[in-house]
C-alpha cells in the first residue's frame, strides 16, 4: 500500500465528509487490522499504525514488523473487500457523530427547512444534511403543513438511532419566541435589548419581559417597531399568537403590575416564605387581571417566577378573618401567632403544613416539639379539607343541574372558571373598541375555541397600529405592549346607515 495514496484518500474523505483526519486514519488502521486478523487468525497479537506524515502503514505480528510483500498478501482481494466494508462503516459512524455533535450545539436554536412529507400528523422537514421531525405535539394548535412549505422551528432534542441521527423540532417551545425576537429585532440580536423572561401558551398568548442596557432606548417600542412592523412578522410566524411585551423591573412591586396589564393593580403584597404574591385589584379589574380561564394571571406567574393570587380587598379581609380563626383553633397557636402567620401570607392549612419548623419557631417563639405538633395538625386538616373539596367537586359534576354559586375565594394562577371569562367579556364591552371588529373577533375565537385575543386597554395606540401600550402609574412610561393578529389589521369603520340604504336601493 502506497503511503501517498493513503494520504490522498484521507484528504479526500476529510474534504467531502467533513470528518477529522485522525478519525479517518483510525478507520484505515482498523480496516487493515481486520484484514490482518482474517489472514493470520486470532492466535497472534496484531497491531497497525499509519505514519501521519508519510501515510506508510506498519503492521506488527507478535511484536515483529511485517514487510511490504507480506502486507500485500494480507491485503488480497477478499481481505481488501473486508477492509473496504470496515472503512465504510467507520466513515458512516464518523459522519453520524459529526452531525450529532453539530446539532447538539444547535439545541434550542432556530433552524429552517422545507416540508418533505407528512406522516400521521408528524411533519418531516429537510434541513439539508439531515431530516428533522416536527411531532404533532410540538406544532402550534390549528396550523397545518403541505409539502414544500417553508418551516422554521427550534431544535428540541437530538438522538442517535442506529446509524442515523434523529433531530426533534418544536414550534411550541418558549425559545421559539425568543429566537424570533433575535431574528426580527436587531437590538435583541446585538444584546442591546435583553429578553429577561418569557412565558408562553403556544398558539394563544405569550408574555415577554424585556430590558435595555441603555436607558435612552425604549425597549418596548423597539420590539414593536415602526407601525408594528417588527412584532407583526413574529405574530405571523406564530399563526396569530397574541404577544404581550412587558417592561422588566428588578422590583416585584413594579414587575408584577406590569405583567398583569391591562388590569390596574391597587396593591402588591409579597410573601417571601411561600414564594407568593398577593395582588389586590378593584372589582371591575378582577376579570382583566385573571384573564380568560386564568390565562393572564397564569402567564404572569410564569413570567415573574412567583405564584400570584389575585383578589379584591373585600375578599382579602374575609380571608384574613377566616384564616386567623382557623389557625387559632390549632392547639399551641395563639391569636397573635395566627395573625403573624397570616401577615406572612399563610392563608390555608396546606400553607402551614409546608412551613419549615425553624421559621415557625422564629415567628412564635415555640419549641421544636410544639412546631412539629402544629405542622402535623395542619397537615391532617389540609388532607381533610382537600377530601371535602374533592367530594364537593364530584357531587357538582354528578349533579345534572347545579345552580349554586361558589363562595368568593382568592384566585391563583392555576384555577379559573367560566364565570371569569364572562366577566372579562363584560369588561371588554366597556372599552372604546370598534363594534364590528370586536364582534368578528369574538365569532372567530368561539369557532376555534381559543382564548380571546381582544386586548383590553385604555391608552393611546402606538403610531397608527393596533399594538397598544399601557402606561404604568409608577413609571409614567409604556410598560407593556399587547399585539394580536387582529390588532395589526387596520380597518375602516362601517357606516351602518349608508350600508342599509344601499342595500334597500339594490333590492328595489
UniProtKB/TrEMBL annotation:
Positions with biased composition (Acidic residues): 427-446, 487-502
UniProt cross-references to Pfam families, sorted A to Z: HHH_5 (PF14520), KH_NusA_1st (PF13184), KH_NusA_2nd (PF26594), NusA_N (PF08529), S1 (PF00575)
GO BP annotations listed: DNA-templated transcription termination; transcription antitermination
CDD domains: KH-II_NusA_rpt1, KH-II_NusA_rpt2, S1_NusA
Biased composition (Low complexity): 412-426
Gene3D superfamilies hit by this protein: 3.30.300.20, 5' to 3' exonuclease, C-terminal subdomain, Nucleic acid-binding proteins, NusA, N-terminal domain
Keywords: Cytoplasm, RNA-binding, Transcription, Transcription antitermination, Transcription regulation, Transcription termination
PROSITE patterns in alphabetical order: KH_TYPE_1 (PS50084), S1 (PS50126)
Tree of life domain: Bacteria
Subcellular location field: Cytoplasm
Segments of this protein annotated with the region Disordered: 380-508
Gene Ontology molecular-function annotations: DNA-binding transcription factor activity; nucleotide binding; RNA binding
GO CC terms of this entry: cytosol
Domain S1 motif per the UniProt entry, residue ranges: 108-172
Database matches in PANTHER family: TRANSCRIPTION TERMINATION FACTOR NUSA, TRANSCRIPTION TERMINATION_ANTITERMINATION PROTEIN NUSA
Record text on subunit structure and interactions: Monomer. Binds directly to the core enzyme of the DNA-dependent RNA polymerase and to nascent RNA.
Function: Participates in both transcription termination and antitermination.
Family listed: Belongs to the NusA family.
Protein name per the record: Transcription termination/antitermination protein NusA
Lineage: Bacteria, Pseudomonadati, Planctomycetota, Planctomycetia, Planctomycetales
